[in-house]
Every structure is written in structure tokens, then in C-alpha cells.
Amino acid sequence: MTGIKVSKPVFPAEAASQEYAASLDAADPLREFRDQFIIPSKANLATKKLAKPGLSPELSTYFCGNSLGIQPKAVSKYMEAQLDTWSSVGVCGHFTDLEGSPLKQWQLLSEQAAASMSRIVGAAPEEVAAMGTLTTNLHLLLASFYKPTETKRKIIMDWKAFPSDHYAIESQIAWHDLDANENMILIGPDEGQHEISTEKILSYIDEHAETAALLLLPGIQYYTGQLFDIPTITKYAQSKNLIVGWDLAHAYGNVEVKLHDWNVDFAAWCTYKYGNAGPGAMGGLFVHEKHGQVDYSAGPDAPQFRHRLTGWYGGDRSVRFKMDNKFKPIPGAGGFQVSNPSVIDLTCLCAALSVFDQTSMADLRQKSLKLTAYLEFLLLKDTDEETRLFDIITPSDPHARGAQLSVLLKPGLLHKVSERLENAGIICDKREPGVVRVAPVPLYNTFSEVFNFVKEFKGALASS
Ligand SMILES: Cc1ncc(COP(=O)(O)O)c(C=O)c1O
Ligand SMILES: Nc1ccccc1C(=O)C[C@H](N)C(=O)O
């Protein structure tokens, strides 16, 4: 649930056929985006030698964009332009815009990326910074936003947050010489459930309102695929004087969010999943306009601004090279930058963003809703709850999920199913003890691939 109204596509019984899947592909207005990506071939996946892509015409089915997106063709083009910039003009690349390059001078490159990312997360360009990596950015944001006091010092969070988030929060609390066990409030689902209801989250906020300083939740939970009701939870927690942050690792480039309008205090994300910017790519963060202001009313040399851990690249470009040790932050999220960013990382990010620049999250989401609903429809068709060898633990309400469906297999089946999928050239993610996470991505996946996946998946179950 996110406050953005969506509806669930419904399919007729005859939709469970290869022909019907092909007709959905033919009618897909985004189908040409697939050609902007390099889809790993089956032979490439099988070889253990370094090889150029395209070793065979037979492509894999890549349903793992929730872990690592595949490579946009624009990456090599942008990288070549960047390598040529560096080799041809050296240090001058910092301040020179080169005609013919899709990339701005290095001083402005993070702004180029931030402007595109801001459209993806529903923010003003100044509210977004392209920088660092997810967990590091969470630390930087918590350094600014987590200010525990004698009374208000707890952090409300997901009981099974991705471990890196758990460690980050645990260590932030310890950094303030506080006891992590006492100050981490973990919200989980009710016994026997996987979904955490909004009501339950609000009741935790009520219960801990006096002692909690901050709430940090994932926009989409990595394991179950649940999408939380970001605007409702944000508004409620803020009404109880909590600061509200969101980890959008699995939401960025996947679902529509409106961080500015929803008044979120801060957020961070990685760009290597649905964002397709490459393994370990540069991340992004959001700081709401209200927290990013710089007030010069006390004079030009005495700017007032929200405390953060600083470095020279958070400093205004106009004075960055003055070397006078007077920190004047860039107004907005850019003022949270620390170091001069890796231009190579920014180049991959800008290349990946150039694909998003050609469409909108609303259009991508529309296709995504259909792809995932089709996956669910085919999985559940001709099955009943009693005898089914799996459960879909992702909510069936499209407001409460993104592209991913997490399929929990009955004990002992994971290995067999994984093997069959692998042999069929289908790549999706497995999590012990028994979950297969399947993420059809609207930019490059097809309805026919969904159909073939379900055929192989059910074939594996039928032979077990
Ligand atoms: C929710 C979440 N947090 C953190 C991470 C890891 O972040 P980092 O990019 O810092 O390795 C991931 C995925 O790797 C994730 O899914
Ligand atoms: N960075 C990685 C490196 C190796 C393997 C997986 C990852 C992931 O990103 C996992 C992802 N966060 C997940 O939700 O599973």
C-alpha cells in the first residue's frame, strides 16, 4: 500500500497459454526497452571462461533484477566516453563539458545523476544526492537524524531487516553508548503470518511514542516483497514526534514513490537492483527540503544548517576551492556529500538512468503490475491451498507489493526446484530454507518468460 491507487489486472482462463503470453508481449507498449539491455545467454552462463556476451542466441530468463539488474547497453557507450574524456583531457575533465559526450563535466556529474534519480523517487532534484553506497549512506543519514536524548532514543525497525541495515542501526545505537538490545524495537508479523499490517506498525508507534526517536523501515521488505504504506506510516510516526527514514533498496526503480509529497524525512537506496547501474554501484539518498536548508541570516560567514558529517564535496561549489576551512553546505541533499565521487561509478549510474529518462515510473509500474499479476495467476491456476506445494508469501494486494513474488516451497523442495530452473536457464534468487524470489522486471522481462518460468517451476514440483 502506498497511497497511490493501483488496480490488479485480471486474466481470463485462456490466458494460461504460450499464445496468450505472446499476445501480451505484442501489446506491451514498453516492449522495445528490452533491446536496450544485454540479456545473458545460456551459453555465457554455462562457460567458466571470460567471454563476450552473445555466445549463443538462446537467452536466459533473468528474474533476478531484485538482486542485480542486467547491463544496459548504454553503459559501455558512456564508459567509453568517460575513458576518452579522462585520457584526452586529464584533470581538465573536472571543469570542461565536452561536445558529443552524454556526460557533464566531473564537477557536475553527480547533479546530472541526482536530477534523473529525483524523478524516480518523487523528489525535487535538490532533495537527492548521488553518492556513496547504501549502508554507508544510512550511517551518514543516521549521524544527522538520529539524535537520541535521555528519554527519546529508541529506533523502531523491521524485525528481519536486511542484515546490513540491522548492523547499521545496532552500531549507531552503540556509537551513542546506548544498549542496542534495549533500543531496537523490532516489528514482525503476527504468528503464522508473513505480512506486517499497517495497523500493527501504527500500534508499535503508539506504544513506543514516548521513548522512540526514529523509525527506519524498508520501503519493500527484501525477503517477503511486502511494500509498506509509506505515506500513512510516515505521517503517523511524525505526528508522534519521530523522525522517519526509509530504505528504498527494493523500491527504487520498482514502484512509484513520492518522497517529497509524503514528507519523508530521509531515505537511501542502492541502484544496482531495479536501477541496473551495476554491482556495487553508486547509491542515492533523499533529504527532505525542510532539512536541507542553509540559513545565512546570521551573516555570510555563519551559515546555519542541520548537523551532518561533512567533507569538502558537501561544500558549495562556488567556495569549494577557496580552501578557507569555512564549510558552506550545498543547500539540500547535495550538502550531505563527503568525498569527490568516483566518476567511473557515476558514469555507470548515468548510463543506467538514461534508460529511465525515456519513460516514467508510472508507465513502468503499470507494466510491472501486469507482469507480476500474470505470474501470480499462472502460479495459482489449477491449484488449491490444501495440496499446493508452495505458498506465495508476498501480499496479493498490488498496493502491498512491487515486482517480486516470494514463493515459499514445502520443506525439502528448494534444491530440486532450483536445479530444474537452472537447467532451463532461469535465473532467480533462492533463500534458505525454502524461498524462491522471482522478480519479473518491466524494463526487460516479457510475459512469455513468465509463462515459461511457471511451466518449468510446476514441472519441477510435479516430478517431486
Ligand atoms: C534492504 C537492503 N539493505 C542493504 C543492502 C546492502 O547494501 P550495500 O549496498 O550497502 O551493500 C541490501 C542489498 O544488498 C538491501 O537489500
Ligand atoms: N549485493 C549483493 C552481493 C552478492 C549477492 C547479493 C547481493 C544483494 O544485493 C542482495 C540483495 N540485497 C537482496 O535483497 O538479496
From TrEMBL:
EC numbers, comma separated: 3.7.1.3
SUPFAM superfamilies, per database record: PLP-dependent transferases
Annotated family: Belongs to the kynureninase family.
NCBIfam families: kynureninase
Pathway: Cofactor biosynthesis; NAD(+) biosynthesis; quinolinate from L-kynurenine: step 2/3; Amino-acid degradation; L-kynurenine degradation; L-alanine and anthranilate from L-kynurenine: step 1/1
GO terms under biological process: 'de novo' NAD+ biosynthetic process from L-tryptophan; anthranilate metabolic process; L-kynurenine catabolic process; L-tryptophan catabolic process to kynurenine; quinolinate biosynthetic process
Protein name, per record: Kynureninase
Keyword Ligase: no
Enzymatic class: hydrolase
Cited PANTHER family: KYNURENINASE (PTHR14084), KYNURENINASE 2 (PTHR14084:SF2)
Cofactor(s) needed by this chain: pyridoxal 5'-phosphate
Functional description taken from the UniProt entry: Catalyzes the cleavage of L-kynurenine (L-Kyn) and L-3-hydroxykynurenine (L-3OHKyn) into anthranilic acid (AA) and 3-hydroxyanthranilic acid (3-OHAA), respectively.
GO function terms (MF aspect): kynureninase activity; pyridoxal phosphate binding; transaminase activity
Residue list for modification N6-(pyridoxal phosphate)lysine: 273
Reactions catalysed, as given in the entry: L-kynurenine + H2O = anthranilate + L-alanine + H(+); 3-hydroxy-L-kynurenine + H2O = 3-hydroxyanthranilate + L-alanine + H(+)
UniProt KW keywords: Aminotransferase, Cytoplasm, Hydrolase, Pyridine nucleotide biosynthesis, Pyridoxal phosphate, Transferase
Pfam family, one: KYNU_C
One cellular component (GO) term of this entry: cytoplasm
InterPro entries reported for this sequence: Kynureninase (IPR010111), PyrdxlP-dep_Trfase (IPR015424), PyrdxlP-dep_Trfase_major (IPR015421), PyrdxlP-dep_Trfase_small (IPR015422)
Main location: cytoplasm
Subcellular location per the Swiss-Prot or TrEMBL entry: Cytoplasm
Assembly and interaction partners: Homodimer.
Residue positions binding pyridoxal 5'-phosphate: 134-135, 162-165, 247, 250, 272, 312, 340
